[in-house]
């Protein structure tokens, strides 16, 4: 452990977590753009899918362990875990639970302000066609938290099906009770 971290206040640690999250996203975007320049969007997307198949599972397992979640943590556990993802530190998002108040059987996750699409727009780049990545990322993250949870895209570029804000996405998570 870095002894300097132990000297920081809670506020400084929170600020540093946000900085680390921004740095992670910048690194992710920079490598993607480098591959995109060399191999085009399709080549970059192939690499991105491969990376997210592994990274999302690693991130979910570490968060699940950190939070002490049970094997089948349900939608409550999924929401709690998602609030600790690196993205949660830098994107505005909302969670809407539907169904039974206590356990719920459906949850909508919506990104309200997507840093990736904003950054690409600022740079004059085409939007990142992130739906196919999200289908891997969100579904696999949810399965680590609870293998009964399924994930469905409601709206994500290039398939914006709602009046989503500037390319932001929405995903539906459903807890299957018959398992």
Q: Which stretches of 5+ consecutive residues score pLDDT under 50?
A: none
First-last Cα distance: 41 Å
Q: What is the approximate shape? A: globular
Q: What proportion of the residues is helical, as a percent range? A: 40-55%
Number of helices: 5
Spatial order of the strands forming the largest sheet: 1-2-4-3
- Give the name of the CATH architecture: 2-Layer Sandwich
**Which CATH top level class fits?**
Alpha Beta
Averaged pLDDT: 90
Amount of beta strand: 15-25%
**Main beta-sheet annotation:** 4 strands, antiparallel
Radius of gyration computed on alpha carbons: 17 Å
Q: Count structural domains.
A: 1
| Extended strand count | 4
Structural class, by secondary structure, is alpha+beta
The succession of helices and strands, N to C, reads HHHEEHHEE
Annotated CATH topology? Muramoyl-pentapeptide Carboxypeptidase, domain 2
What's the quick description here?
This protein is of the alpha+beta class and 179 residues long. It is built from five helices and four strands. A hairpin with a 7-residue loop joins β1 (92-98) and β2 (106-113).
Can you offer a commentary on this structure?
The chain has 179 residues and is an alpha+beta fold. It has one domain (45-175): Muramoyl-pentapeptide Carboxypeptidase, domain 2 (2-Layer Sandwich). 53% of the residues lie in helices and 16% in strands. The chain is built from five helices and four strands. A four-stranded antiparallel sheet has the order 1-2-4-3, with helices on one face. Helix 2 (10-67) packs across helix 5 (131-145). The longest helix is centred in the N-terminal third of the chain and has 58 residues, at 10-67. The protein is globular and about 45 Å long. The termini are far apart.
């Amino acid at each position: 452990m870095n002894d300097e971290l132990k000297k920081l206040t809670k506020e400084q640690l929170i600020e540093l977590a946000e900085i680390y999250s921004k740095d992670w996203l910048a690194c992710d975007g920079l490598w993607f753009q480098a591959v995109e320049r060399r191999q085009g969007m399709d080549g970059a997307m192939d690499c991105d899918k491969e990376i997210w198949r592994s990274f999302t599972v690693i991130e979910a397992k570490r968060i699940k362990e950190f939070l002490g979640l049970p094997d089948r943590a349900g939608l409550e556990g999924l929401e709690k875990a998602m609030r600790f993802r690196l993205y949660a530190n830098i994107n505005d998002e909302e969670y809407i639970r539907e169904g039974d108040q206590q356990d719920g059987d459906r949850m909508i996750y919506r990104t309200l302000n997507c840093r990736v699409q904003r950054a690409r727009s600022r740079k004059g780049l085409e939007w990142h066609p992130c739906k196919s990545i999200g289908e891997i990322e969100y579904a696999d993250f949810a399965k680590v938290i609870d293998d009964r949870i399924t994930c469905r895209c409601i709206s994500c570029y290039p398939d914006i099906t709602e009046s989503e804000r500037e390319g932001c996405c929405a995903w539906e998570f459903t807890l299957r009770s018959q398992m």
